[in-house]
Amino acid sequence: MRSFLLLSALAAAIPAVHAQQCPDTTAAVERAYAVRPGDVLPDRPGWRRDLQAGTCRIWPAHPELTLLAVPIWNDRDSLPDAPDGDLELMVIDTAGGDTRAWSVLRGAIDSDAVRFDGVSLDTARYRLDGAHWTFGVRTRFTGSSSPNPFSDTRLRLVAYAPGHLQVLTQPISVQIAQGEWDTRCAGEFLTTTRTLEVGPPRAQGFADLIVRERQVARRSAVRGDACVDSETPAIQRSYRLRHDGRVYPLLDALSPY
What we know:
There is one protein chain. The longest helix is centred in the N-terminal third of the chain and has 11 residues, at 2-12. Strands 7, 8, 9, 10, 11, 12, 13, 14 and 15 form a nine-stranded antiparallel β-sheet that branches. Strands 1, 2, 3, 4, 5 and 6 form a six-stranded antiparallel β-sheet that branches. The protein has two helices and 15 strands. By secondary structure, the chain is mainly β.
C-alpha cells in the first residue's frame, strides 16, 4: 500500500511553473473571450469550450502579458468514452485583456486509453533565441485502472513574438508514473522524470534543448505482517534536441506512452 500511495503522490506532482495565478481565473478567461476580435479563435459548430477548466497566468518575466489555455471539446464527432479535444491558447494584455497572439493545439487533449486531467502553464525562462519569448503548456493524463495506475504529464514549448505564437515541440512526456500491483501491497512501479535545459545560444535559430531523464523502479512485497518497499538505483540519461528550422524533432523515447 505504501508504494501505491507514493506512486500516486508522484503522479500528482507537476513541476513548479514559476508564475502568478490570475486573481480570478474564470473571470479573466471569460473576459478574454468576450473582448477578442471575431477572427480570433472563432466558435466552431459542435465544439464546446470548457472555460471552467481553463488556466490563466500572469507572465512573471513580462507582467504586462497574461497567458491563457482553454480546453475545447469536439462533442459532434467524439465517442462518449474517448472524447477528442484541442487546447486554445491566448496571450493577452494583463491590464485590458486585448488579444496579442493566439493559437490552437490540435488534438492536445484527445482522450482514449488515458483521460485528460488538467492543464497548466510553465513560465520557466526558456530563452531559446533573441527574437522570441517562450513558455510551456503542460497537459496531464491519467489512467482509470486501479491495478495498473498510470499518469503522464506532457510539455509543449510555444514561442511568442508580438502577434504570433509558434509551437516548437511535439508533446514531451516529462513526468510518468506507472505500475502494476495487487491493490493490497505486492507490485512494481516505475517513475520517470524529465527536465529541460537550454543549450548555448546559436548564431542563427533556436538553441538546442537538453533533456535530463531520471528513472526509478520500486517494488513492494509482503514481509511477515508488513508491506516492504525496495528501490533500485536511479537510471539517468540525457537527450539533445536540435531545431530543424520548423520544430524540434522529437525522439521516440520522449514521446507520450
